Structure formats: C-alpha cells, structure tokens
Amino acid sequence: MFELFLQGIAYLLLMNENFYGILLESKVLPESWPDGPARSTATRYMEVRGRDGHGAAAATLYESALTLREHAEVPFDADALRVVFQRKRHAHLVDRLVSDLKTQPDRASEHIRRFEESLKSGSELVHLGSDIDRAYSDLKKRSAKGVAMRPLKGFPLLTMLVNGFNPERFALFIAKSGFGKTTAMVNIALAASETMSVLFVNMEMSRQDFVERAVCAAGEIDYTDFVTTPDAYQKSVEKIQEQLILRDFHFSTGRSMTLSEIKAECTMRKKRTGLDFVVIDYDQKIDLVGSDEEWRAIQNATKFFEELAKELQCYIVLLAQEGEGGDISSSKRAKFVATTVFRFYREEDDDLNGRPVYLIEAIKNRYGRSGGKLRMEYNPACLSLKEKGFYEKQSFEERSVSTILAIKKSRLASRTPAYVPGAD
C-alpha cells in the first residue's frame, strides 16, 4: 500500500509543476523512499527538471506517468471518459513537443512554455439548459453562507462597487511608486480578515516592518510616535492583538518568490485553514524564472493568478506600480485578464475646503460600473484608510474666490511633503 501511495505522489509530481514545491515543504523527497517504480520515476524527474525544467521532465517521463495511476474506463461514465480524453490529448501534445524539440532545439524554452500553457488551457463544453439546476442550486448555497456577494466589513461601498469580493476573481490594485498601495492594501486585508481567511504574500517588507505597519493601521496609530515611543502604546497593542489573534491572517516574510512558490503557499493554506482572500505585493517583486521579457512575464503571471483564483476558489489581488495613462508600468496588457482594476491616486484639485482628495477608482470592473470612484480618508502618518462615499468631481463654478486662493496656498505649502516612514 505504501508503494501505491508513493506512486500517487510521483504521478502528481509529473503532472503538476507546482507539486514540486509542496514536496520540498513537506520534505517527502525520493531519496528517502524505498526502491521501486515510484522512486525511480521521481528521481529521474528531479534530474531532468534540474537540467531542463518541468516541461522537459514531464515529457520525458510521460509514459511512466500513465502507468503510475490507473483509471477505470467504464463506458458512459462521464468522469472516466473525460480521463480518456485528457490522456489522448496529453499524448498528442507530448508528441508535438518532442517533434518540435527535435526540429528546432534552439527554441526549446519556447516549445516547453507552449506545452505547459496548453496543458492548462483545457476546458469542457456544457449544455446551458441542463446546467441551470446545478448553477442555481450552487447560488442558493453560496447565498445561504453569505458568500454570493462576499463583503468586506468596514468597506461596504467598495464591496458595492465591485459587487462583492467573490471567489474565482482576480484583481489588480495599482498606484504610483511610493504613493501608498501597500498601506491601502494592508487596511483592506485587515478588514477582509474579520470574515475571511487571508494570506498576504509580502515580498517587500521585513517581518518586523510588516507587523509594525499592520498594528498602526489597525489602531490608527501615528507611525513615527509608535516606533520612537513604543511604551506609550502598550494597552493599544494588547487590544489590537486580542482582536487579531482570533483571525486567520497569515503573511510571508519579505523575500521574492516564484509563481510556483506562491501557488504552493496558497495551496497549503487552503488545505490547512481555508483561503478566501490573497494579496500579492507586488508584481515586480515576483521572481520570474526564464528568459522572457519583463512585460511578457508579468502578463503570463496575471494569467497564472487568474487560473489560481479559480482553482482555489478564492479572491486574489496583485499590487502593481502605475505607469503612464493608468496602466501597469511593467505590462499594459496585464490588466486584460483581471475582473477588476483598482487605481489608488490623489485628485489633481483639492476639495472646496482645500483638503486633498484621495480616490479609489475601478478603471475596469467586470461585475460593476467601470469608472466608479470612491473618496477615501487616507492618513499616511497613521497608515490608515477609510471610505467616505462615492465621488463626483465638483465644477469650477462651485468654488469661491477665497477657496481657490486657499487651495493655491495649500498646494505651495505641500510641494515638499514631510517624509513618512513606511508610507508606500
């Protein structure tokens, strides 16, 4: 029985690129397995993967994979027939890959990437009328659980803007470099953690910096005061910890991660505690393995996260730096796969009272109104973010002369803003 168990692990290793990361985390490596087909295949996979990558290893050992796991092929059994179809489809793809590698070995990485993408692109055809009962039943179950339109407690208008932070959706959250996208998302993630399991893939800050920022955001504490006179906030910190200790909020500790490593972490969290809301901070910190140009690699990464959100039934948001025209600086095409693209920025004109206007705009919004804007109460000093209401820009005629002069004076005074530690 143990050999069959190991054969199942070897099969997953060959058929799922990201299972390698799970094996490393669990330390169930082939070198410790007893002799047998499973150990031989897995060891050979490791050798080829280390030299040529997953695609080449999976192609080399594909015939072995089919013998590791047997499926009952019963006529008229839909699941069994689907397995047969996938086997034949995979065999065709492997044959094409081998042929391409032989005829054009100088383009091996391109052939392998196309092979891997083709494995992920399979879909099935469903009869609409026959599927309504299943879909309606699923909707009623999700509604009864309160996840038909999943809300963020503390951000009801933001929830309304996108019609819920529902599973299987992927969003982008963009802002100018140094503007405060991480601060904004720490606040939003804290709100999500009141009702959801949250994973914050932090590739920007140290462990200490992340905790300090989260505490300040949760308690609306001035960051400079907190780090210079921490003893003054003992009771506040204890109260914040009492609240957060009961929530399922995990974060990673600041190093760059590959797509496979991110998926492995998400998969493990899903199995251990569940997973509803994932933040990835940020696009240019992802360790993009391969020789692709950055824009293409980022575009492929967004497709990867879109598929991951569907696979793990969670909401994923990727932070990114804003370039010209509200696009992602690294890839203008990256936003195509997102269900929502949020833009966090400051309006050019202050309000009638001369105060800055901070906005979150849904510049793309597949499940709501594109172009909808929320005015936010943003305090960089306290690292806090709250919503104030939907925003419509006031016309020039509504401003008095004294207000206009006050705004000009305010702008001159704020041209060189004071540095706020950790304001990004």
Shape annotation: globular
Number of helices: 16
Please summarize the sheet with the most strands: 9 strands, mixed
Strand content: 5-15%
Strand line-up across the major sheet: 3-2-4-5-1-6-7-8-9
Provide the residue-averaged pLDDT: 80
Q: What is the structural class?
A: alpha/beta
State the assembly state of the protein chains: single chain
Reported CATH architecture of the largest domain: 3-Layer(aba) Sandwich
CATH class (first level) name of the largest domain: Alpha Beta
Which consecutive residue ranges, at least 5 long each, have pLDDT under 50? 71-85
CATH superfamily of the largest domain: P-loop containing nucleotide triphosphate hydrolases
> How many distinct folded domains?
2
Report, as a whole number of angstroms, the end-to-end distance. Answer: 53 Å
List strands and helices in order, with pairings.
Layout: H1 2-15, H2 19-26, H3 37-52, H4 54-60, H5 62-68, H6 78-103, H7 108-120, H8 128-144, H9 156-162, E1 169-175, H10 181-192, E2 198-202, H11 207-219, H12 223-228, H13 234-244, E3 249-251, H14 259-273, E4 277-281, H15 294-312, E5 315-321, E6 340-346, E7 358-365, E8 373-379, E9 384-390, H16 401-413
Parallel strand pairs: 1-5, 1-6, 2-3, 2-4, 4-5
Antiparallel strand pairs: 6-7, 7-8, 8-9
